[in-house]
């Protein structure tokens, strides 16, 4: 399981690095002005629906049912079930696409009401979203095929698919932008092309695995009904997550120009460790726990969840501290060029620090929810998410006045900690989770090592101040890279000396222990 997590995380890391290249180009060309705000709204809307209809809810409902059919009746029956769901999803997404293309101007008044009356942002956001929205159709089918492959222990293709998105957007910025009225048009068409490319790639890998889902007339079988019963609460839970993001977008549209862009750039950096660690852990842990629970191995499922939490904290705590300690030089060096000003970098850095406060909580949530979903319980996480959404809205309303978009990011982080705490309490109350002795021993030691990392990074930033502020981009990037490597070494030494790393993990990975 740990090797699979590292494999998925490694491919996700490649995607995120390409995403940084994409964002650096986007920041240099679009900056944080009205065209950038319009595109980020257009990019965010189909991604909201993707998370609602595809990745979050769909995986939570599909993987346990698919795994059960696979264990009970074999691969042909599982493929038939997947084909029924695939056909229903295809028809539903076509209907949704037709509806939203027709009502897009009206819907945009709800999604970004602060854009109403803006002669640039409102019409461009409508136009760009009409171009990007078909991406949802393709990426939803990609999510289904990725869930099938993950259930079979084939994680690479689904983890590599986002690489195609970043390559398409980079290609659009470099090759298509000079041929369009502005780069927002090029990026919007790049999003649509990326959806098609990812769909073709996942379909090819499904055929290689002999599990490609057949497209036919949707059928309402007993297994599909069971899937839909589980999907309902899961979709509601994912909907609550999207409500949080929707509220960010809605409130940010009322803030001064640039707030949407500051949130976007900060979230992109925060998503690097969240994607590499959190998504990788959740992707691998859900099918792993589902298979063990179907086989009656409760002890093995609990052990896997403890190890997933251990690895999540080991990688996330230092990442969060590093982002908080070095937010300003990171934003300045990566993005401050062209249309992206010093003020833009400073505002984005403050937003990044607020997001990073909640980074460990978001990753822990992804390690805890499989404990419910693997047991086909999608209702309890929804109830907890409702409480977290209420807290999130209240915190945003209180914090947005004095802190602007930083308050929105901080509200998101604090509500994530509330969510993580309630999930832990619910699992413990039902007897589904207990932190074992190893996790209880290493977690506080990891925290101390992460704090030592933060102190070391601030001293390093002071020592390298002249290099980090050099007018030469190569010198600044070299200094930032050196600071990061030094911090990594410092954390590794601190965690080892304090006992925050269990050496058995490294030994097993080195010798390829099949038990992990």
Write the layout of secondary structure elements.
Elements: H1 2-30, H2 34-73, H3 75-111, H4 121-132, H5 135-151, H6 156-176, H7 183-209, H8 222-252, H9 259-294, H10 298-325, H11 327-335, H12 342-357, H13 359-368, H14 370-373, H15 379-403, H16 405-429, H17 437-463, H18 465-468, H19 473-498, H20 503-511
Structural account:
The protein has 20 helices and no strands. The chain is mainly α and 516 residues long. Helix 6 runs antiparallel to helix 7. It is globular, with a radius of gyration of 22 Å. The model has no long low-confidence stretch (mean pLDDT 84).
Name some characteristics of this structure.
516 residues, mainly alpha, 84% helix
Tally of strands:
0
Number of helices: 20
Helix/strand order, N-terminal first: HHHHHHHHHHHHHHHHHHHH
Structural class: mainly alpha
Q: Quote the average pLDDT.
A: 84
Helix content estimate: over 70%
- The residue ranges in which pLDDT falls below 50 over 5 or more consecutive positions are none
Oligomer: single chain
Using only C-alpha atoms, the radius of gyration works out to 22 Å
Strand content: under 5%
Report the end-to-end length measured between terminal Cα atoms. 5 Å
| Sheet with the most strands, sense and barrel status | none
How would you sum up the global shape? globular
């Amino acid at each position: 399981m740990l090797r699979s997590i590292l494999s998925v995380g490694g491919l996700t890391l490649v995607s995120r690095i390409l995403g940084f290249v994409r964002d650096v180009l986007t920041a240099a060309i679009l900056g944080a002005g009205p065209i950038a705000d319009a595109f980020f709204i257009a990019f965010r809307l189909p991604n909201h629906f993707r998370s609602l209809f595809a990745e979050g809810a769909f995986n939570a409902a599909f993987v346990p049912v698919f795994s059960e059919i696979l264990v009970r009746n074999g691969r042909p029956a599982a493929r038939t079930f997947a084909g029924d769901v695939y056909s229903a999803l295809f028809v539903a997404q076509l209907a949704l696409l037709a509806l939203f293309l027709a009502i897009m101007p009206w819907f945009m008044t709800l999604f970004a009401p602060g854009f109403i009356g803006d002669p640039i942002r409102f019409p461009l956001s409508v136009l760009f979203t009409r171009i990007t929205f078909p991406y949802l159709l393709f990426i939803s089918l990609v999510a289904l095929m990725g869930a099938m492959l993950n259930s079979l222990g084939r994680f690479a293709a689904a983890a590599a698919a986002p690489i195609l998105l970043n390559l398409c957007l980079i290609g659009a910025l470099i090759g298509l932008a000079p041929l369009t009225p502005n780069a927002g048009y090029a990026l919007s068409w790049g999003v649509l092309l990326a959806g098609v490319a990812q769909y073709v790639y996942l379909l090819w890998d499904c055929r290689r695995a002999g599990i490609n889902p057949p497209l036919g007339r949707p059928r309402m079988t007993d297994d599909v009904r069971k899937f839909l019963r589980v999907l309902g609460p899961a979709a509601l839970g994912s909907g609550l997550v999207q409500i949080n993001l929707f509220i960010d977008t809605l409130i940010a549209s009322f803030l001064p120009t640039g707030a949407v862009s500051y949130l976007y750039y900060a979230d992109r950096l925060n998503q690097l460790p969240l994607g590499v660690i959190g998504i990788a852990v959740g992707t691998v842990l859900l099918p792993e726990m589902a298979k063990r629970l179907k086989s009656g191995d409760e002890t093995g499922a609990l052990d896997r969840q403890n190890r997933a939490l251990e690895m999540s904290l080991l990688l996330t705590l230092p990442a969060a501290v590093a982002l908080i300690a070095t937010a300003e030089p990171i934003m300045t060096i990566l993005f401050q060029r062209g249309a992206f000003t010093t003020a833009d970098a400073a505002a984005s850095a403050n937003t990044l620090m607020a997001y990073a406060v909640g980074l460990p909580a978001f990753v822990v949530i992804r390690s805890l929810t499989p404990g419910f979903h693997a047991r086909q319980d999608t209702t309890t996480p929804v109830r907890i998410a409702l409480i977290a959404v209420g807290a999130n809205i209240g915190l945003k309303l209180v914090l947005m006045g004095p802190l602007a978009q930083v308050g929105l990011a901080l509200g998101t982080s604090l509500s994530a900690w509330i969510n993580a705490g309630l999930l832990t309490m619910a699992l413990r109350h039902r007897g589904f989770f207990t932190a074992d002795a190893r996790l209880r021993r290493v977690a506080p030691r990891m925290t101390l090592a992460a704090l030592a990392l933060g102190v070391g990074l601030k001293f390093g930033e002071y020592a390298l101040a002249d290099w980090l502020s050099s007018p030469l981009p190569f010198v600044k990037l070299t200094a930032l890279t050196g600071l990061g490597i030094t911090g990594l070494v410092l954390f590794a030494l601190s965690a080892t000396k304090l006992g925050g790393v269990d050496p058995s993990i490294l030994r097993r990975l080195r010798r390829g222990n099949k038990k992990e």
